[in-house]
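Archive transcription. Copying these from loose printouts into the bound notebook so they stop getting lost. Printout 1 of 2:
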Amino acid sequence: MNSSLFGTLRTLTAATALIMAHALLAQGGGQVHGNFSMDGQLYNDDEQIGAVKPPADFGLNAWTNLNYRSGNFEAGMRFESYEPALLGYPAGAAYKGTGIGYRYATFRKDGLEVTAGNFYEQFGQGLAFRTYEERSLGVDNAMDGVRVKFSPDTGIYLKGIIGTQRLAFDKGAIQGVGIVRGIDAEISLVEAFPRFFPDLAAKGNNLTVGGSFVSKFQPDQDPLLVLPENVGTWAARAHYTTAKWDLYSEYAYKINDPNGSNNEIYKPGQALMVNATYSVRGLGINAGAHTYDNMVYQSDRGAPTLFDLNINYLPTLAKQHSYNLPATLYPYATQPNGEVAYQGEVFYKFKRGSKLGGKYGTKITLNWSGAWSLDSTAIPNDTVHYTGYRTNFFAMGERQYFSDFNVELRKKFSADWELALTYLNLVYDIETVQGKAGQPVVYANMFILEGLHNFNDRNSVRFELQQLSTKQDHGDWATALAEFTFSPHWFVAIMDQYNYGGSLDVEQIHYPIGTFGYIRGGSRFSFSYGRQRAGIFCVGGVCRVVPAANGLTASITTTF
């Protein structure tokens, strides 16, 4: 299926969706729903923090989603505008201009679902295939083609996809050059074959197994290397659940895929992840582990960055902190070319009325995660197979990329007061994770106090006091935050992030920012003014660089 055919398909999909939606609306049937969001920023120069005002002075990201559904038919589109895009956005290839970035038409009947146009999809946990949008990062690898889902019987689910991936935006979505094809099958044994698993069904347990195969096609135009034009990945998974246990495992294998990120080697890739959760009233235990080896998988071997045209997704094993200092200074990003990682968490709630629980109970959470390099050995003078190195599967190397040990104690003292105290101990290989060559490993300790006070049913204040100590990087930091809520409509927040250095001789800089907003129904308006520190912003182990900025930011979101 060539690019011209995909172009024709995209045009026909958009035209068909509009014509059918218009016809159905004219008949007075169906439902229309959608949302609108806008983020705009007016920039100032700020020499102290290195913020430079761009030529346009103002950046704008805006999206409108419009969806129509009537009976078995659904159609929709997303209108996008970047005039120009906010500084540092998106994570990968550039977005600019205004146009339609997403459109689709879907029909469902008798267990069959067919989508033509754009779609997001995931096989298992995504080790072989996942397309998704993370708007805060500017990550969008939506498929553009055809997807078919079919459930021939209860508990049996089949999927098939083919198309290209979104790469960039220039007055409309721009697709990558590679073609992605994939199939996936999943069977819930208890649902599909209850007579063969009566014990599982009687106890409310279930076992689901699945498998998938994904292939990308890209012509070989390299004058020096003989590159595989079809690169396949297969994956298998199993998920077992009971009233107390949730066990999941997935394995993926990718054939040799020489590309810029792995120095053009011909070594196959593989990934394995396992996770176990035990939960009863007042107690939860979770443990997970994974290993990734040479698992960068992009539909274009010459993709501009590692954010672009990713076919698969490699989840991180690190706690996603919501507090300012751990979330913005040293968040961990998955190392797709090779890492071994572990994570464990224990949650316990002391009962009300007990000595430690008190009147309202007390919650404690302990979490630890760590990531290391692979135990690998370089293969010198490998002029025959060009596999680069050999590894010991699931074995840790000598280099530690990351470690995060944290303890949170949360206690409600009265009907009006609740406090939480958190301690974090962090080891962070900033050279590997953020690409800061020659920089030493960061060892940091953090203390965070969070409080919530309800003045009455409508008004409250939440505050945070955070402190980070380290003798590496930029030294010590402190953050203070206060949020006032005047329900049901108004909120005001003030925050200051302060780099005071401690034992290191650094320029002491404040990063103050103030925000106020208004909420009504499904609409939210907010305005902020202040400084933004240069650094990285991460979601789910995927990060983008955020430049220093000073200015006024406006945000509007609404749903209908």
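Printout 2 of 2:
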Amino acid sequence: MVYILGVTGFSNGGHDASACLIQDGEIIIICEEERFSRKKHANDTYPSIAAWNCLNQAKITLDEVDYVAFGWDIPQRYKQRDFKLFLKKFTNQLFPESLFPRKKEPRCEFIPHHLSHAASSFWTSGFEDATVLVMDGQGECHSTSIFYANRENGIKALKQFGVMHSLGYLYKATSGFLGLGKENPGKTMGLASYGKPQYYFDCLKLNLDGYEFVGFPNFLNTDVDADKLGEIVNIWYDYFQTKFLLQPFKTSQSWDILKNQVNYAFSSPVIENADLAASVQALIEEIGIHLVKLAVKLTNCSNVVLAGGVALNCSMNGKIAKLPDVQNFFVFPNAHDGGTSVGAALQLSYTLGIPPIKKSLSHAFWGIEFKDDEILNLLQKLGISFVTLEEDKILNVVADYLNNDKIIGWFQGRNEIGPRALGGRSILASPRSKTLRDKVNNTKGRELWRPLAPSILQSQAGNYFYDADKGSLFMLRALKSKENRIREIEGVVHIDGTSRVQLVPDNSFYGQLIKCFYDQSGVPVLLNTSFNLAGEPIVGSPLDAIKSFFSSSLDVLVINNFLIHKK
């Protein structure tokens, strides 16, 4: 029996810290640090609490872990420093004695960052071999990588592109320039649909070798000892101002002009900035599609998997999945840095001669689960009134609330991994009304122009969306809505007619809830957004859920079989 603890996240430039425990090549548990620390993205943080929870759930100690796999090549990142001294400090910070009493120091292995990303998606795809494209902000000294992966021979890098050509940093720069915050590229993706891609990037060069942004400094490509986000953001800001004659929006500037429903009345500055979002989104899609076509030609393999933060761009993913070059398509739900703990552990397992278990990831519920007695004790301790219902009854009761336009906080089973709530820690509502959609956005403190996503029964998806067979269990692809169905689900259809669809297996517990709603409403869809309030990570514990419930205008909270109302 071999235990490998995968980890990612550190104090100087790390983000989306997480931990993963695998046993003999099989995932046991995945934990994200933000769910415990309540610090969104867990920036500049070691995944100590996440690692402790992984070991606690498995009922083992750090001494029983055979290897620790870190999702960065730290020796390369710190190659000009005293690494032995750094390693001792590193392990002490990652595994403080107060949480991890031990008799020996853990054996650490360091896996290159993009290899960790690639491994997270390939080893969980279920494919025998695959073309792998990794796109993110920055690994050690790369921002984009093409790999060929094969279960027998492993994962081999074919092409890699330097940090100056980072698509992740370009998207962050755009988000910052638009006043939406560099850490909120999802907002930029949503805003892109309100503009037109009218800006021409004369710096982009596509060719048979890949792509590059010409005219920008190349010295950044080889410097691995620092996060280059700030420098690259400034370069792009200058480009936007010089080439497009735009000025950056300040975060304090109001986006309230976007708050109405479909026919937004834009003022001139908003048009310009929405057009920039649309132009950058089109650029990202153009590069992504070009790289996939190039990569498939290089590998002669039409199974395509994506990883890295850019792989969370569901608009791009939806277009890539439909390419004739792509037969099968997969993206790991935790595609950003949080997934590299998983990839590092699985890749090290392969290197040790323990091939990861071959099966396609069928769900994202790999986090912590809370038992009924824990929840009951908490509710009683807090003096909160509740009703306990049997499983079949609670589904019908909740479906009835949803059919009557109530907004539900839904907390069930294990935490899902990744930034998209998938029916474990979700806020749910009827999808039929834009008014209710706006109410949900208000409840969360979200901008009203941002779209919300549909969860749909897998068996019914083809009735509501084109290319439903190209859909995603993990809400990672945008699909075009069928025109004759939009009126039924207008609360989850974006202004461009697309939806970030989650396909839900009919026989799952969440699927049974949607089925009950379908029986009552005639619509096999629920509006699903993450269970969190503005600026917070998704709730991780029953206490987090209770705090959010009583701090918001949610109508009902359901934790396991406990139903909670506000007095």
